[in-house]
């Protein structure tokens, strides 16, 4: 049971429910193929039925760690830090990104945008979900839009979301892993007909790395 004092620090963003942190190759989107240090923060109530990291949902199962300790670990591995989840914007990201930027690190976030944008980011990957749509200014600030394609209706959802981001935002369609064999041909056909989109694949799974 986390004390009230620690929960106050978590709510302030000076401690975070850290699920895991690891150095690997970015597998998706614009930065795929590049080395990065991942910080996976626990806590998410978006509830995608196909989520492949459901163990991240319950923040209470992941002990709060001080942001200072997280930043110290991050500096040992890479110049590029990717904050993911769970849903990292559940928490105030300002203290974490302030610490990372103080070490001259590049800050990237992968988020559904379901909560207001906090933190200072060099790259924002917005991956909206139907269950809980993005809020606030993140549509205008997203550098890439990554829509997960599970069924045909997701193409309609993708276009609805693409209409909300800036003209400079890079658009990606990514097959949900469990239905990739079915959806990849449909995504390829769609992108060929609508070349403003690009195909994103979870290349880290093909490479069998985290």
Automatic annotation (TrEMBL):
Cofactor descriptive note: Binds 1 S-adenosyl-L-methionine per subunit.
UniProt-annotated binding residues for [4Fe-4S] cluster: 44, 48, 51
Top EC category: lyase
Species this protein is from: Flagellimonas meridianipacifica
Known EC number: 4.3.99.3
Purpose: Catalyzes the complex heterocyclic radical-mediated conversion of 6-carboxy-5,6,7,8-tetrahydropterin (CPH4) to 7-carboxy-7-deazaguanine (CDG), a step common to the biosynthetic pathways of all 7-deazapurine-containing compounds.
Sequence ranges assigned to domain Radical SAM core in this UniProt record: 31-210
Reaction(s) this enzyme catalyzes, per UniProt: 6-carboxy-5,6,7,8-tetrahydropterin + H(+) = 7-carboxy-7-carbaguanine + NH4(+)
This protein's UniProt keywords: 4Fe-4S, Iron, Iron-sulfur, Lyase, Magnesium, Metal-binding, Queuosine biosynthesis, S-adenosyl-L-methionine
Cofactor(s) needed: S-adenosyl-L-methionine; [4Fe-4S] cluster; Mg(2+)
Binding residues for S-adenosyl-L-methionine: 50-52, 86, 127-129
Protein's recorded name: 7-carboxy-7-deazaguanine synthase
GO MF entry, a single one: magnesium ion binding
Organism superkingdom: Bacteria
Pathway stated in the Swiss-Prot or TrEMBL entry: Purine metabolism; 7-cyano-7-deazaguanine biosynthesis
Family note: Belongs to the radical SAM superfamily. 7-carboxy-7-deazaguanine synthase family.
Single Gene Ontology BP annotation: tRNA queuosine(34) biosynthetic process
InterPro entries according to UniProt: 7-CO-7-deazaguanine_synth-like (IPR024924), Aldolase_TIM (IPR013785), rSAM (IPR007197), rSAM_sf (IPR058240)
PROSITE patterns: RADICAL_SAM
Self-association and partners: Homodimer.
Annotated binding of substrate, by residue: 25-27, 40, 84, 210
